[in-house]
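Re: weekly structure request thread

Next one in the queue (334 aa):
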Amino acid sequence: MSIVERALQKAQAQARAGAATPAATPESPVEPLMATAAATAAAAPPPSAHGPEPTASTVDPGLTARDLKAIVHVDVEALRASGRLPSAAMAEQTEEEIRRIKWPLLRSIAGVDGATPARNNVILVTSALPGEGKTFTSLNLALSIVRDREMRAVLVDADVARPGLTPSLGLEGRAGLNDALEDLERDVNTVTYQTDIDGLFFVPAGKWHPQSPEFFAGSRMPQIIAALSRRVGNGVIILDSPPLLATNEAQVATRLAGQVLIVVQADSTPQQAVQDALALVDKEAPVSAVLNRCKPSALSRYYGHYYYGYGYGYRGQYGDQGPRAHESQRERRT
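Done, posted below.
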């Protein structure tokens, strides 16, 4: 037998012996560590097209651990058809307009450029009444944020009474926020879904529960928000909240947010309703506003279609009256 044949025979014998070796005992850290590393690598999102992924110092690896749920497909055409995303013709303009909402919010989180620092990285999007465009704003804001390099966003469907985003993303009936609130032992990762949009994660509303207002007011909700904030690192938590005048959950949730964005439908929402809604917001949270669905003018087609106010003066989606709208709205508030 040649040297090569003997070496091959020895290698085969060693391989057979290795296959027959008993599994590592629970005391041995080798197998669990290897399994965790393999699972984490398998669950990790693909490299960002916008640049390198955030480092381990900024993002908790628990967000992509093996208990993270399967990747959720974001069906752009279906979301456009349901009004959650703008039409293809309006997509580019809307993206530009949402940027003007995004940047002041992110500057406050970072505490840069003279902005008043926000107390945390949680943005609550709400409205006074249903149907004013808060879910549209929440989703498009999250998508705009993850277009930034090294930014991640966890979008939470906190409208547990009438979820909008959950059915739109095909997760109706799945465990979500309410389940994590009810079950004190449930890890928030088990209700956090990775999407096929790089950097975007989603927490569905979960099973409705008659004690949802008490859940929101309890000590469990701050724990969940804090866990999501840590895991997203230097990213953002966006809560698509219930309308402030429709449920009790929204008022409680404003205590957890670093910033509150209230969406107001032009020529529809009564001024008194807006004032009543603002009175319910936690006094420590800065409030900004989006005036939505204004009648477009020739000037607004150049400047954009939203009005974004309370100090930021933004114009954007669905129409306003250009710069004059900013002045008139400011006068109306005083």
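Confidence is low (pLDDT under 50) at residues 18-67, 302-334. The chain has one domain: 44-333.
Next request, please.
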